[in-house]
Amino acid sequence: MPVGTWEATEGGPLKERIGYAAWIVGVAQFFVVQGIVESAWVRPAYSWARNNISDLGNVHCGLRTWPESRYICSPEHGLMNGSFIALGVLLVVGFVLTGGAGGAGGAGNGVLWRGGRVAVSAWMLLVSGGAGFVLIGLAPTDVHKGLHVVGAALIMGSGNVGLVLAGFGLADRVPRPLRRVTGLLGVVALLAFGLFLSGHYLGLGMGGMERVAAYPFLFWAAALGVRGCALRAGRTRTAVAEARAGRARAGAGPSGG
To answer: What does R_g of the chain's alpha carbons equal in angstroms?
Structure first.
């Protein structure tokens, strides 16, 4: 098949590659920006154990007493909130482009999801987790606490339930160990979320336990994105090589006859 024809018929894989890249870029920019915003704190220094993730997005400086007492002052809060929003948007875009609800339901060309209600539920819950990041970026804790709490619940509640279900809803073409790890990450994150809500931090501190509840979702998306990009790149190289070989054989045909 000529390369041009192959490229024209592979719109699906192209969208998938963009979706995988969206996950990688979203997660990478989040951790880079988080480091930059953390470094802007001066009194006291930001702590992964003592501070919530969303403390970085608080607009006003002052003493906070919920869920633990601490002083918050994030000079680069705007940058952090922008990063939350970008992360959420890119996560959702990735889910849509790598399969979407149609793919999960068996009616589309999704490459990640098997058919059935479990896959559809997992996909929808994970999308809601991505939307939660957008919400916490739009509603910092000290500006609109209620909406911020809803966003956090979507990430660490709905998103992690989605991870558990994804362990059963991912397609067979996803290696079984990865499917098992997906479900296990969801279980660990949900347990951490429960411990965080109950104030049992197991020596990790409030911020540490919150990260155990929130970060598995991000690590999973980034790992799936890297794997997807690597696989698609390999298939692209193979298809191009086969197309060139086909043209070479076609060109050699007349002289060989």
So the answer is: 22
**pLDDT surpasses 70 at 156:** yes
Q: What are 70's strand-pairing partners? A: 64
Check if the beta carbon of residue 170 is closer than 8 Å to that of residue 124.
no
252 pLDDT tier (thresholds 50, 70, 90)? low
Identify whether 44 is preceded by a cis peptide bond (ω within 30 of 0). yes
Q: What is the DSSP letter of 4?
A: H
Q: Is the pLDDT of residue 235 over 60?
A: no
Check residue 156 and report its DSSP letter. I
CA proximity to 186, closest of 254, 93, 118, 88: 118
Positive or negative torsion for Cα 130, 134, 136, 137: positive
Q: Where are the alpha helices (DSSP H) in 52-175?
A: 77-97, 100-104, 117-138, 145-153, 159-169
CA dihedral 133, 134, 139, 145 (to 10 degrees): -40
pLDDT at residue 3, rounded to an integer: 36
d(CA 52, CA 84): 14
| Residue found by looking up tokens 């709905």 in the block | 158
For 157-174, the DSSP string reads IIHHHHHHHHHHHB-TTS
The residue written with tokens 């060139």 in the block is 244
SS3 113: strand
CA gap 240, 217 in Å, rounded:
34
**Which residues face 7 on adjacent strands?**
none
By the 8 A CB rule, do 2 and 247 touch? yes
